[in-house]
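Annex B, item 7. Sequence and structure tokens for protein A, then protein B.
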Amino acid sequence: SYVLRHARSRNYVSESEVCKLESVPLDFGDYHPLKPITVTESKTKKMNRKGSTSSTSSSSSSSMMDPLSSVLDGTDPLSLFAAAADPVTAAPATDGARRKRDKDESSAVGSDFEPWSSKRGEILARYTTTEKLSIVSGGFHRKATTAGSAVSEKVRTRLEELDDLEEGSQKELLNLTQQDYMNRIEELNQSLKDAWSSDQKVKALKIVIQCSKLLSDTTVIQFYPSKFVLITDILDTFGKLVYERILSMCVDNRVSLPDNFSPESVNDTAKETCLNWFFKIASIRELIPRFYVEAAILKCNKFLSKTGISECLPRLTSMIRGIGDPLVAVYARAYLCRVGMEVAPQLKESLNKNFFDFLLTFKQIHGDTVQNQLVVQCVEIPLYLTLYSPAIDWILQCIAYHAPDILLTEMMERCKKLGNNALLLNSVMSAFRAEFIAARSMDFIGMIKECDESGFPKHLLFRSLGLNLALADPPENDRLQILNEAWKVITKLKNPQDYINCAEVWVEYTCRHFTKREVNTVLADVIKHMTPDRAFEDAYPQLQSIIQKVITYIYDFALLFSVEKFLPFLDMFQKESVRVEVCKCIMESFIKHQQESTKDPVILNALLHICKTMHDSVNALTLEDEKRMLAALINGFIKMVSFGRDFEQQLSFYVEARSMFCNLEPVLVQLIHSVNQLAMETRRVMKGNHSRKTAAFVRACVAFCFITIPSLSSIFTRLNLYLHSGQVALANQCLSQGKA
């Protein structure tokens, strides 16, 4: 007899838990096996440091010096390979905590705050020059040192290097073009990273000092805003490298600091290194490099004390008072605001003090010193004043961020009391909330009227006001008066480019709040200004923007085409590629917003003309995707045309469309389907019993298909349409046509 054996029941999950290897959580922090290790004695607080710039790691597990690392001065051959990597890009994979901290700090201000990075490209593109530039280049060479050099020798070498910086080891590169200058700045940025990664911290500091000194040079004044952007990129890199360096020294037992660490949790080595950096910077003789380099590492105050940043900001703000050139000073204030918003956005008092200091020195802009400098450089006052805009806009944006209306009103009143305040007024309108500006539109118009025309151009002020009114609505009773006051100034502009830049902004305001009569008046004025000397050829982007705004707000096409000047406005688009783009925009809007079919002759004639323009742009080089898009827009229009029970008129429209759109096969296919549908609709109306008239009409429909199908190139499309059309013919008792 057989004994039935059953497998014993097992709990695989619990067995797996028991048998698997024990997992130990590891956080390597800044640990890397190739990094140099210096084993220090834990019984004493005196650090055996080889200079503040060497990599150190404290360990209390041993009280004796490692004989190998002491011979190699803390640098073994393998670690040299690791040091060659860029410290910015070669961070360990386990450095997630640091990345998270950076992300949290960068998001201390909300997403509604426009970051500096978004303004950077615009400044570089706007402030250019064709004049020759010069740059002072330091002799940044690395002196060869032996591996076992003594501490005193290292210190002496570094002091000599810093002295070299002051004693003129630099050479001046002259006659550089703007692109050469930008390339040279980029080389310095890369040199900074290379010097840092090769543990040459003094050289890195020299590069940053050298770059900061360039910000005191205003010999090519119209390029200064772009120079500021390029050099502060280097300062930002330096500040990040120093902060990451000190942060890496705070790693204890491979555990990095928490995100919101306190100075008490920072070890003595990191604090000493941090202080050493501040002492080095404090010894820089010149004010401008000392200010910029200290501002760049402002964030490092977090390692020393809780109140470090709040104490430094007012001191740095006061330091700017020592900068004599008002343009250099205002950009220094902008940089301090930028750094302040990154590291301590809650300290708004210092930002406000910074701006009020600027207001006190505002009259310097119109002083004799500046006037003499402008005469030498042949720069006009209006152009000079626009150089201030990026800096003042940024300062005011930082101050206005989540600021109460009381503060904004106070600042507006202070600006109003100053003479020649058009520059400030423009920045206020650029930086303050659109709702705040819109609610006080008439006050701003009054201030704009009082501005001196010889200084900051008034049309730029009205453009800034118009940009705000496009985002927020002014009081209803003031709307017409605002438009009249603005257009009085805009229509008097002689320069077509200045005119169209303003008109483009105010068209949106007109479309939002007024009827087709006012829109027609504005379009007529634009045509009047842009037609002479074919000025429209240089303003296609602005003219396209105007069309886009008009069809955004007036999407009833019966109303749109009743605007008398709309079609003449389209005639200004003479360049074919631009004209086709505009036509596509109009057709997309029609298909999107037209809810019901139409037979309005005005709409049909206008849109047929627009579709014809799109069709005629097709040639042998047109891409298939482009053809498909144009065909889809034209088909969308054809489907929306309906003459109701007037079937003969409908067929006439399809015949006309076939003659106009013969180069786009998808349109011909759509027309064949539409005509077949028309024949079946006739059969449905007649309930299958055709009269002589309807029988002739149906035969005409079948003949349309019979003639059109052979012109198609796709065999299978032709086959399907023949089958479909034959069935329609037979259903309508057109036997001979169906057989054919």
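Protein B:
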Amino acid sequence: MSSLTEKDRPVVQLLLNTGTCPRCILRFCCVGSQTLYRHPYKELMKDLKEFLKNNQEKEDTVCFDVADPPCKRIRLEHTEGPDDVNHSAELQQIPLVNDENTATENSAVKVCNVCLGILQEFCEADFVKKVCQKVNSADYQFTSFVFSVSLPPQLSVREHAAWLLVKQEMGNLGLSLAKDDIVQLKEAYKWIIHPQLSEELSVPADGKVLFEVSVVFAHPETDKECHFLATACPDCFKPAKNKQSVFTRMAVIKALEKIKEEDFLKHFPCPPSSPKNLCDALEIQCNNGAVFVAGRYNKYARNLPQTPWIIDGERKLESSVEELISEHLMAEFKADSFNFSSSGREDVDVRTLGNGRPFAIELVNPRRIHFTAEKMKGLQQTINNSSDKIQVRDLQLVTREAIGRMKEGEEEKTKTYSALIWTDKAIQKEDIAFLDDIKELKLDQKTPLRVLHRRPLAVRCRIIHTMKSEYIDEHHFRLHLKTQAGTYIKEFVHGDFGRTKPNIGSLLNRTADILELDVESVDVDWPPTL
């Protein structure tokens, strides 16, 4: 039985007298029954007054007949440790009113001095409906939800002040109250809100799902009430990017852990004063966890970059592989944005043939998430019909974890290329035949000049596993290569002014250059073939 006992009476009376709401009183009495917090506000207030009215002298259990077991405990301490300082001189003395009418008058406060209304107005059906209207108007697909709440930082300050007050009262009874024993405000709020949201949205609450409903509360006096902490503990409050105020919840909690009780009591009223304003529900937001789509793409154009080609703010080419694929996914999934990744990349003038290059797209905050294999097949066809520059295959939904397989051991994977090569001096078949016999050729490749602006200067060891030459005429031949992933093929052909050694030019003892390059296969066994 989760309940209040006779030892809770002074605490209940003290907090009611100072303007604390019934649900916060239950928190400070360490009541762990979720069901109890969901009782109507007026009913809870009535029950607390009845509890005070019962003039029992025995330590028997009183009122609140609910089944949930308590999750918090008050610890009995008969000795006062060296760290237990009696701050009765600093604490404002609150008369413990025995007359029930006076207690009733004092407890009729508009806004709770601890939660600033979070466990009052914002637990009512009207606010829940407001949240659900926002969720429904956002037009998301979801089958369950997780609820999160952001609270004004000064609630931690007010709770600290109330705790010091209650701790002193408990000390007078030979009891102690650890701060961790108090039921957390967020926890109590979720106990109350979850069932209401579930009923209104007709889906269950589930802490493990990706669809999040969040409420951000704010209060106009946050900075004013927290300012003394910045003076007492300046090292806890440092300006941070994307933060409007230095008084973040974590910074305030850190300062409260650091500040001495006597210093706190000099600067903040204890009990906390009755607030002038209720909290504001600043934002009600919805967010769906990212959806991941993977597949393989072929690129048939020699004037198409993999990603948008923009230099100094100026677009060089009108489209890209990334955009041709993602624009259709963005439209179908109704996502806010996307992130494109792939197993390597080809240059703008290089085609990708064969079974294509593996890619994955993260779709951020999608409104639509339910896609069958048949729908994905239709989406693949839509992409393929939209352009003759690319084609995709094996389009499918994957998990975030599965994308890691695309990158795993990328350097150890092999890739197959076809290069059209020109030489300055005439060649015969026999001049290039020896290339076919070279196996596991080791290269030292200094970062190519053409990518030095975006890649660090380094010498990378790469391997050409096999080569097969195909004679065309006196100045042209085609070379089929199987190489270690990450090998710069163009530089292996022309040498990059000696930055790649050996190279085709040095092997043939003449100037060589590359005219065309195709990727014929990327040997990454992912995603699964459909």
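Comment on protein B: Confidence is low (pLDDT under 50) at residues 55-63, 65-90, 93-109.
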